[in-house]
Amino acid sequence: MRKADLVAAISEKTGIAKVDVLVTLESFFKEVKVSLAEGENVYIRGFGSFVVKKRAKKIGRHIKKNVAIEIPEHYIPAFKPAKIFVEQVKGNVTALPSDESNGV
Predict the structure, then answer these.
(1) Nearest of 37, 62, 63 to residue 50 by alpha carbon
(2) Are strands 58-62 and 67-71 parallel, antiparallel or unpaired?
């Protein structure tokens, strides 16, 4: 499901105009990004948490030059689904067709 599909589905179920749903969804995404950029986690009960994770510094390798490089400590965004969300998905998802399991 893409963002356009999500907007259409929400619009159809709620009767709200697609443009209003899109603006609301974009505002939600923006607020999550801003909160995470400020180091503040976002918790949505029953759905999950958008959190900032710290990655320790490590030694990597530049493959083309075959040289070791130091990757500094940095932060990345992550999503942790709520327990009830995980249980709901576990109980309802069937095997995916081969083309969807490859991310295509």
Answers:
(1) 37
(2) antiparallel
**What are phi and psi for residue 28, nearest 5 degrees?**
-60, -50
| Percent of the chain's residues with pLDDT above 90 | 77
Cα(34)–Cα(39) distance, integer angstroms: 9
Rg (CA), the chain: 19
Which residues, 6 or more positions from 81, have their beta carbon under 8 angstroms from its beta carbon? 47, 48, 89
Report pLDDT digits (tens) over 24-46. Answer: 999 999 999 999 999 999 999 99
Better-scored residue on pLDDT, 101 or 58: 58
How large is the angle between the packed helices 18-37 and 3-14, nearest 10 degrees?
120
Backbone φ/ψ region at 28: left (φ over 0), alpha (ψ -120 to 50), beta: alpha
Q: What share of the chain is helix, strand, coil (3-state, %, to 5)?
A: 45, 30, 30
